[in-house]
UniProtKB/TrEMBL annotation:
Signal peptide: none annotated. It is found in: Cytoplasm. The keyword Transferase applies. This is Dephospho-CoA kinase. One of its GO terms (cellular component) is cytoplasm. Belongs to the CoaE family. GO terms for molecular function: ATP binding; dephospho-CoA kinase activity. Catalyzes the phosphorylation of the 3'-hydroxyl group of dephosphocoenzyme A to form coenzyme A.
Length: 200
């Protein structure tokens, strides 16, 4: 039986870099956000549902206008809830289908930013790894890689779970205040630990 580890953390914590390190080590990696983007990409399964719920204002022709959609869901909590309720079963189904491809592996990783917020995602994993960093570091990382202002980043952080609630559900925690090399070393050691725990 493959043990699936839910990799989570707030925006800017470095969870995607941690996921990339696991993938480099040959660990099966699934990504809930990537699945969501596929479902809302060209000819995506979610597009007809989004169009029916939100109308043409969030579309540019046949494509979803992600910037408009993002502004809408962060400004309107009911719109955000509607979108999440629409997307969740589609994402769950796709991840479950992909998990079946790795049944012979000792363990795999699923990157799930909303693992704490959406309890349904927790049914996909048997173990939880939290990547965390100081809030000021997280904000600076997000601002450096995007066009978002500090206030916009803080709004995103505000709608995510408090770190304290993530700590309660985590089996392991990596504090990622350092550089990429430090994170690479920590993931390498954790991979050795997981291999010893889950391999047979």
């Amino acid at each position: 039986m493959t043990i699936w580890i839910g990799l989570t953390g707030g925006i800017g914590s470095g969870k995607s870099q941690a996921a990339a390190e696991f993938s480099f080590l040959g660990v099966p990696l699934l990504d809930a956000d990537a699945v969501s983007r596929e479902l809302t990409g060209e000819n995506g399964k979610a597009l007809p549902l989004i169009r029916k719920c939100f109308g043409e204002s969030v579309f540019m022709g046949a494509q979803l206008n992600r910037a408009v959609m993002r502004q809408l869901v962060f400004a309107d909590s009911s719109a955000r809830q509607d979108l999440e309720n629409m997307m969740l079963p589609l994402i769950m189904e796709e991840i479950q289908n992909r998990q079946l491809l790795y049944q012979q592996q000792p363990y795999g990783v699923i990157e799930i930013p909303l693992l704490q917020e959406k309890k349904e995602f927790q049914t996909l994993v048997q173990h939880v790894l939290l990547i965390d960093a100081d809030e000021s570091i997280r904000i600076n990382r997000v601002m450096a890689r995007s066009n978002l202002s500090e206030s916009e980043v803080r709004k995103i952080i505000a709608v995510q779970s408090e770190n304290s609630s993530r700590y309660w559900m985590a089996d392991e925690i990596i504090l990622n205040n350092g550089n990429k090399d430090e994170l690479t070393h920590k993931i390498g050691r954790l991979n050795q630990y997981y291999q010893s725990c889950f391999n047979g």
